[in-house]
């Protein structure tokens, strides 16, 4: 697995706040809210603006109740469910996110297809996990700051993904419900120790979703950065195009 790149070393951090990004981000917004893209839909840029789209499959892993479905909704700009319900099978969500590469200044649209599968469904049906692993590019391992057992289960979760058909897979850890500090069951010292021993960065999410992009930008930029970096390392070049759009939907 490629080493995790330093934050902000591959893509321009906070690019969504820069003037030159407005034309691109306007294509994923509608009345200041995120557009909901179906499997066959994509942002439409003017003919004079050439933007490549790179496709990635992301699996969201975690115990029941940690917020997998809520995270997918948050990243896509959808309404977060008020009540928890167990995902009965596989749910997919499409997220488009434009980034600007730091070295070349090239702009890319990242098409992230998020796969969410209920823990009980994975246990009951043996064919679901192989389907989730097939051609996967990244895994988000979730734990809840309000559930110590979900944090302690991280090593068990990650062990299931040590071998994925010989593919290099980006692995990121996300702590959910970070805003519920009054009910926090995972100490910051525990998180730091995990990061030091595992070498995996821990991202945090929680709280109400605003109409802006700042809530999701850190996580989506980090994910895009790691995906592009790993592709470049795998290809042995900084101009890797294996995921460039060819008209097929992954």
Automatic annotation (TrEMBL):
Listed GO biological process terms: cell projection organization; exocytosis; protein transport
Classification via Pfam families: Ras
Any one GO molecular function term: GTPase activity
Domain of life: Eukaryota
PROSITE patterns tied to this protein: RAB
Cellular localization per UniProt: Cytoplasm, Cytoskeleton, Cilium basal body
Keywords, in A-Z order: Cell projection, Cilium, Cilium biogenesis/degradation, Cytoplasm, Cytoskeleton, Exocytosis, GTP-binding, Nucleotide-binding, Protein transport, Transport
Main subcellular location: cytoplasm
Annotated InterPro entries: P-loop_NTPase, RSG1, Small_GTPase
Family: Belongs to the small GTPase superfamily. Rab family.
Listed name of the protein: Ciliogenesis and planar polarity effector 2
Source organism per UniProt: Labrus bergylta
Biological classification of the source: Eukaryota, Metazoa, Chordata, Craniata, Vertebrata
């Amino acid at each position: 697995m490629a080493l995790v790149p330093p934050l902000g070393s591959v893509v321009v951090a906070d690019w969504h706040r820069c003037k030159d990004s407005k034309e691109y981000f306007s294509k994923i917004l509608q009345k200041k809210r995120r557009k909901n893209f179906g499997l066959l839909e994509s942002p439409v840029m003017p003919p004079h603006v050439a933007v490549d789209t790179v496709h990635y499959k992301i699996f969201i892993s975690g115990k029941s109740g940690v917020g997998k479905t809520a995270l997918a909704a948050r990243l896509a700009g959808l309404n977060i469910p008020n009540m928890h319900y167990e995902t009965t099978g596989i749910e997919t969500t499409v997220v488009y996110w434009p980034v600007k590469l730091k070295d070349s200044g090239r702009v890319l649209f990242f098409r992230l297809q998020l796969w969410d599968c209920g823990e009980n469904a994975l246990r009951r049906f043996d064919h679901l996990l192989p389907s989730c692993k097939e051609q996967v590019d990244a895994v988000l391992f979730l734990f809840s700051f309000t559930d110590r057992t979900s944090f302690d289960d991280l090593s068990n979760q990650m062990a299931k993904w040590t071998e994925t058909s010989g593919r290099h897979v980006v692995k990121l850890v996300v702590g959910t419900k970070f805003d519920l500090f009054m009910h926090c069951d995972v100490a910051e010292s525990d998180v730091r120790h995990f990061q030091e021993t595992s070498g995996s960065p821990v991202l945090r999410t929680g709280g109400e979703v605003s109409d802006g992009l700042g809530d999701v930008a850190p996580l989506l930029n980090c994910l895009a950065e790691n995906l592009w970096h790993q592709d470049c390392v795998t290809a042995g070049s900084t101009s890797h195009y294996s995921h460039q759009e060819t008209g097929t939907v992954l």
